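thread from #wetlab-drylab

HS: before we spend reagent money on co-crystallization trials with coenzyme A, can we at least see a predicted complex? here's what I'd submit
DV: go for it
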Amino acid sequence: MNVILETERLLLRTFTMDDVQLIYELNQDPEVIKYTLDPIKDLNHASEILEKTILPQYVLYNHGRWAVHTKHNLGFIGWCGLKARPERNEIDLGYRFIKSSWGKGYATEAAFASLNYGFNTLQLPRIVGRAMPQNVGSIKVLEKCKMKYIGDDIVDDHPAKTYEAINLRLYD
Ligand SMILES: CC(C)(COP(=O)(O)OP(=O)(O)OC[C@H]1O[C@@H](n2cnc3c(N)ncnc32)[C@H](O)[C@@H]1OP(=O)(O)O)[C@@H](O)C(=O)NCCC(=O)NCCS
């Protein structure tokens, strides 16, 4: 397990091509993809997402979406992390967890650690977070991470509330 980040209760590690089943199963729950609108058709599709979207980010940007495990039993609970969006000149904070793990503060814990890693280790200047206006849980996570609401956008054809965090250490 290539652990990138450790928090009080969680480990964040890089995904590998062995994680096809985990990605597939996570996205089979209609509630998990209710506001992300990106169903995964089958195992081949999950494999393609890992190969073409998730894994290249590690090589190109030294960060990406990381698999999240609880420390107490090493169970996989979802993913969290940073994704470069060069077409928007942005680094995006994102997260997605299996329903049985919701409501325990895991998303906030993983998101906050990812933000700090982006700022303190990677020295990124700015990180953006977006959620559909109805996705109250996701918006709360962004707010609990002390990200600042900067407005409403249409992103990838969907309405989104946009939040940002600035790396103040770079501007001292
Ligand atoms: C959004 C998501 C990541 C939240 O995960 P989580 O582990 O339950 O979040 P946390 O436990 O850290 O909760 C953070 C806060 O949001 C609140 N919250 C979480 N879900 C909520 C909901 N559906 N409605 C209202 N509040 C909610 C929690 O109560 C908590 O606030 P509190 O500390 O004041 O009680 C999870 O629901 C998820 O994976 N959803 C599907 C994927 C998704 O939508 N990802 C985001 C795309 S933008």
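DV: Residues 3-171 form a domain with the Aminopeptidase fold (CATH 3.40.630.30).
HS: ok that's useful, forwarding to the group
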